[in-house]
Design a protein that fits this description.
Among the domains are: 130 residues, Orthogonal Bundle (Arc Repressor Mutant, subunit A); 106 residues, 3-Layer(aba) Sandwich (D-Maltodextrin-Binding Protein, domain 2), CATH 3.40.190.290. Helix content is 41%, strand content 23%. The protein contains twelve helices and 13 strands.
């Protein structure tokens, strides 16, 4: 083993050092024999320092710039810059070409990035094995959720999760986009998404489905006959939830399965379910809404459920996150907490 640990000055040797440690763990050897205690301490210290430097380098690449990496790592841009320079000096290569407005990887940087990502995933798995499956979740979890669900339906399971795991902090980010642009560069651990998932690079756990119905304020139908068929809706003013429909609405008959497409010219379009509900309450038009958010309005008579035998197709709700060889305990436990809390969330 002396040959393995005699020089940790190059990137390939650092990889060899750490991968040997991982190999020993995988082979389930209880003792790692090093030349002497001083050498062991030196190796582990050097390995730990380099792990932090490689974590910083990977975050710089995936965030797109130093300031974004600093924000995601909770530190300053000068600190990130110093870490990058230290890593470059340690490896003896230039990893990034930087100018005022651009940043790109060198050839050595491309190679280093791929090795570093694989190595960091293996190191995370190594730590998890060493600490055992019962590791207490800790650290920061960043979650994206739609406004309506994120403000109401998922707060209870989120609260249960935080109470159970006091060492975890959560950034609860509300966005109504159907899909996240880039989980890694945005530093997002997971997201709750409403609608079909088209990105095959994501793990998608289906949580429930959301029924959608036609709603309008009684004032919209003043001097008009109550609609009895989807074709009667064409002349009414419309509201569009542009995330899911814009210029036409597809309705399905619950009893026969027959479908009808209704072309619409919206008086108002929005990407927010709360805004759609508020506009409907003001009598601005007919809209297709998630049933759960307008239940109390229907009971109170503030809104009407139009043509109940026809409705838009239900929308699936998924918890999604990128594929990886290792997931931290805070994410694994969050997934379990959300799934366990679905009996309340799914009461649509």
């Amino acid at each position: 083993m002396n040959g393995v640990y005699s020089d940790c000055s190059s990137f390939d040797t650092v990889v060899a050092c750490i991968e040997h440690l991982l190999y020993v763990i995988r082979m389930k050897k209880s003792v790692i024999t090093l030349p002497d205690n001083t050498g062991a301490a030196s190796l582990l210290s050097a390995t730990g320092d380099r792990i932090e430097l490689m974590q910083t380098f990977v975050r710089i690449v995936e965030a797109g710039n130093l300031s974004a990496a600093a924000n995601q790592l909770g530190t300053t841009q000068p600190t990130i810059s110093r870490r990058l320079q230290t890593l470059e000096r340690s490896l003896g290569v230039k990893l990034l070409h930087r100018s005022t407005h651009t940043m790109r990887l060198t050839t050595d940087g491309e190679r280093c990035y791929q090795h570093a990502r694989n190595l960091l995933e293996s190191w995370a798995a190594f730590e998890s094995d060493l600490r055992g499956a019962g590791q207490e979740p800790a650290g920061l979890l960043r979650v994206v959720a739609p406004h309506a669900f994120g403000q109401e339906r998922f707060i209870k399971p989120l609260a249960d999760y935080l109470k159970r795991y006091p060492q975890v902090n959560v950034e609860w980010l509300l966005h109504d986009d159907i899909a996240i642009g880039d989980f890694i560069s945005d530093g997002i651990d997971c997201a709750i998404q409403v609608g079909e998932i088209s990105d095959s690079s994501l793990v998608a756990i289906k949580l429930t489905e959301v029924p959608r119905i036609l709603i309008a304020a009684p004032s919209v139908l003043t001097d008009r006959l109550l609609p009895k068929h989807p074709r009667d809706l064409a002349t009414l003013p419309w509201l569009a939830l542009r995330t899911y429909y814009r210029n036409e609405v597809l309705l399905r008959c619950k009893t026969t399965g027959e479908t009808q497409r209704i072309p619409i010219t919206p008086r108002m379009s929005t990407d927010n379910l709360y805004a759609l509900r508020s506009a409907a309450l003001q009598g601005l038009g007919v809209g297709v809404s998630s049933a759960w958010i307008v239940d109390s309005d229907l009971v109170a008579g503030r809104l009407m459920h139009l043509i109940p035998e026809w409705q838009a197709d239900s929308l699936p709700v998924h918890l999604v996150y990128p594929y990886a060889r290792f997931y931290p305990a805070r994410l694994r436990c969050f997934v379990d907490a959300i799934r366990a809390g679905m009996s309340e969330v799914a009461a649509f």
